[in-house]
Write a structure and sequence with these properties.
six-stranded mixed sheet, alpha/beta, single chain
Length: 285
């Protein structure tokens, strides 16, 4: 086992990486946070070398993940990188505090000090060939995409189970391209009654599906559909023009001195000139 003079703990994160470096006696030499990115990781590696004041082979780095850009950057600079299981880190954390709250600075300190006292609990990471790193990343991407496809297919299957289980009788694996095209062509049971067999046969031929023919597909899709209850509309009033119900319109107050039963005379002349004036009343008398 090679001799290490300084021990760095790195609590990695999606945006910021917290770093703490201690010497052989457990004294904290420096701690700092770095932004994730090309410039931030390069600055972190340079800061470790400058703070320790020693060569890269005399600095050990502890981290919870055995791969990733942080690990690759440190190994490229020649640092001795060690990985540890997060569950083991929980046990080491109890040495400093019994509290279970997450603290990035404390975790970085715990990683560095645990590497100093219990290096045998860590796994030394060896540099790997660039081809292996690339293959590992492609494999991880393929695994993530497969999980996303499975999750989305399960969600779509639940929706079909609610209103269109006939399509699941034809094929339950919705990740297949021809099933999605069939769903797009015949999205509802009502549409299945109007589609011709020749259209379905062309779709199956285009996807090279031979285990089932067009007649069998249409026979399954034309099974009685699940009845969906419509919204209860009884007792609802139709809103008037403008979106205001007639019974909620504001009534205009009547003018003072004017009866609501008889509209006021518009265009009436001076008092006595019209039929409602004093002169008119006198003639009527």
């Amino acid at each position: 086992m090679e001799e290490l003079e300084y021990f760095a703990g790195i609590d990695w994160g999606s945006e910021t990486h917290q770093v703490c470096i201690v010497d052989g006696g457990g004294r904290v030499v420096g701690e700092r946070g770095f932004r994730h990115g090309g410039a931030g990781l390069a600055e972190m590696a340079g800061w470790l070398l400058a703070t320790a004041g020693a060569g890269p082979h005399a600095i050990g780095a502890a981290i919870e993940v055995p791969h990733g850009p942080v690990v690759e950057t440190l190994m490229e600079r020649g640092l001795a990188v060690h990985a540890i299981n997060p569950k083991q880190l929980d046990r080491f954390r109890d040495r400093f505090s019994p509290a279970g709250a997450k603290d990035d600075r404390r975790d970085a300190h715990v990683l560095g000090d645990a590497l100093r006292t219990d290096r045998h609990a860590f796994r030394r990471l060896d540099p790997t060939a660039p081809e292996i790193v690339e293959l590992r990343e492609w494999s991880r991407i393929a695994s993530d995409l497969t999980g996303d496809r499975t999750r989305l297919a399960n969600r779509a299957r639940q929706q079909l189970w609610r209103y269109y289980p006939q399509l699941l009788e034809v094929e339950s694996d919705l990740a297949k391209a021809w099933v999605r095209d069939l769903w797009s062509l015949i999205p509802t049971p009502a549409k299945a009654r109007r589609v011709r067999a020749g259209t379905v046969a062309a779709l199956l031929k285009r996807h090279r599906v031979r285990r089932i023919d067009a007649e069998a597909v249409l026979l399954a899709l034309r099974e009685p559909a699940i009845s969906v209850a419509t919204r209860h509309r009884r007792g609802r009033r139709r809103p008037s023009r403008g979106g205001v119900r007639p019974d909620r319109r504001r009534r205009r107050p009547a003018r003072q001195g004017v009866s609501r039963d008889r509209p006021a005379d518009r265009g009436a002349g001076p008092v006595g000139a019209g039929p409602g004036g004093r002169a008119g009343k006198a003639r009527a008398a």
